[in-house]
C-alpha cells in the first residue's frame, strides 16, 4: 500500500506517489496472493497508519490485520500517531533486520505501555536477512550502481525507464 505523502520523510525525497504505485504494481504482477491497495493514495495527504487501519477495519469488519515492520522501526514506533491505539487495533509482526537481537530490546526502551510491548516483542520473526533498504537502493541508483537482485527486474526497468532517483 503506497502512501500519498509519508509524514516522516521530507517532501521530494521519494519518487512521486504515482511512480511508487506503478513500481509496486510491477513488483506484484506475478503474485497470486498480493495486490496493490490504493486506499492511502485515494485519501491523499499525509498517511498515518492509525487512520489507514481504522479505514480497513470499517471496510472489512470481519477480518484481522497484521502490520509488518522491520526491527529498525521498533525504537521509533512510539512516535507514530496514536501508536498505542494502533498496536491494539491490529497485530504487529516484526522482521528482524541483520544484527538485530530481540533479547537486547528492553520493554521500557520502546516507550510503549507494557501490555502492548509484550505483544510486540512476542511477534519478532527471523527471515532471510539481507542488509539492504529502500534508502540504500535509492542511493545506489543515484550513484549509478547496480540494483540487480535487490529489486524485481520489472522494478529495476521501471526505475531506469523513468529516470527515478538520479542526481541532478
Give short descriptive properties of this protein.
168 residues, mainly alpha, 3-stranded parallel β-sheet, 7 helices, 3 strands
Which percent range fits the helix content? Answer: 25-40%
Give the topology string: H per helix, E per strand.
HHHEHEHEHH
Individual helix count:
7
The secondary structure category is mainly alpha
Main beta sheet strand tally, sense and closure: 3 strands, parallel
Strand order of the largest sheet: 1-2-3
Distance between the termini: 28 Å
Structural topology:
Layout: H1 17-28, H2 39-43, H3 49-59, E1 66-70, H4 83-89, E2 91-95, H5 114-122, E3 124-125, H6 134-142, H7 153-162
Parallel strand pairs: 1-2, 2-3
Note down, in words, how this protein is organized:
With 168 residues, the chain is mainly alpha-helical. 38% of the residues lie in helices and 7% in strands. The protein has 7 helices and 3 strands; from the N terminus they run H-H-H-E-H-E-H-E-H-H. The chain has a 3-stranded parallel beta sheet. Helix 3 (49-59) runs parallel beside helix 4 (83-89). The longest helix is centred in the first third of the chain and has 12 residues, at 17-28. The radius of gyration is 17 Å and the shape is globular. The two termini are 28 Å apart. The mean pLDDT is 88.
Short description:
The protein has 7 helices and 3 strands; from the N terminus they run αααβαβαβαα.
Amino acid at each position: 500500500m503506497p502512501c500519498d505523502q509519508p509524514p516522516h520523510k521530507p517532501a521530494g525525497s521519494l519518487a512521486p506517489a504515482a511512480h511508487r504505485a506503478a513500481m509496486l504494481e510491477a513488483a506484484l504482477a506475478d503474485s497470486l496472493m498480493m495486490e496493490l491497495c490504493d486506499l492511502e493514495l485515494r485519501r491523499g495527504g499525509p498517511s498515518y497508519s492509525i487512520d489507514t487501519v481504522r479505514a480497513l477495519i470499517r471496510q472489512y469488519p470481519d477480518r484481522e490485520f497484521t502490520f509488518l515492520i522491520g526491527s529498525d522501526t521498533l525504537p521509533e514506533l512510539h512516535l507514530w500517531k496514536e501508536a498505542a491505539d494502533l498496536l491494539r487495533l491490529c497485530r504487529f509482526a516484526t522482521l528482524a533486520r541483520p544484527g538485530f537481537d530481540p533479547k537486547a530490546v528492553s520493554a521500557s526502551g520502546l516507550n510503549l505501555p507494557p501490555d502492548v510491548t509484550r505483544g510486540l516483542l512476542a511477534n519478532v520473526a527471523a527471515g532471510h536477512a539481507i542488509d539492504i533498504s529502500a534508502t540504500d537502493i535509492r542511493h545506489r541508483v543515484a550513484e549509478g550502481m547496480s540494483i540487480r537482485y535487490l529489486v524485481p527486474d520489472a522494478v529495476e526497468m521501471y526505475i531506469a525507464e523513468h529516470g527515478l532517483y538520479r542526481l541532478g
